[in-house]
Amino acid sequence: MTREIKTPNMTQCLVAGGFAGMAVDTALYPLDTIKTRLQARNGFIASGGFRGIYSGLSSAIIGSAPGASMFFLTYEQIKSSLSSLPAQQQPFVHMFAASAGEVAACLVRVPTEVIKQRLQTRHHNTLKGAVQGTYATEGLLGFYRGYLTQVVREIPFTCIQFPIYEYLKLAYARRMGRPIRSYEAAMCGSVAGGIAAAVTTPLDVVKTRVMLSTKGVGQSPEYSGIVATLSRIAREEGARALFSGIVPRTVWISIGGFVFLGSYEKVKSVLLETGLLSHR
Fold it and tell me: How confident is the model at residue 1 (pLDDT cuts 50, 70, 90)?
């Protein structure tokens, strides 16, 4: 006997997604800092090395919960609305739903990501200084530096991760003859995240360079544009530089996929089973 698949409502998506976002960003922040410093043009040591690996954590926490909430709210609602399509079309549904979720989430995530990475690489020493410095030199648009690059990076990532994630969950549930448990979904998320992370590392390097690229009044940023940045890095530093930080990124996102998707599935299942927030 199969259990009816329930779709969380808006409030449940927001709560489960927010919890998952804060859990993964807080637990794995040091790996994210190391990855960012490896990808910085100044190099790992000049960007801070292993010192202050929690620099920028406050900015990450501010953006993690609302960003993850926006992603899962969009993802779950689109996936549910298109669930009647044939099974062979479901991978494309997951790609579309995840892509739409990332576009929505990046509206919240990118400003905090810009500030976080500038703190991680010692461009600024305090959260207040980073916010004031970015606004003074680049205005409000400075907080969205790299938005397009982030979206272009996240869409291929999610188009790889979520179809694999949903497939692994479904295949495992069929093999076991029962609904998948939260820790099993977490393992599926870890595998899917690791594969997607390794493949999309060059886009992550480009995103890091663009976000760390500041400009003064009347000046152009050091890095601008996805194709131009890719070409410049390959030309000046070699193709190998496009895979800078691939090991910590893959490890970070593999563990992150376990924590992030496992936490989300657990909180979601608890909310659905208990009926908490079901009428709000």
Answer: very low
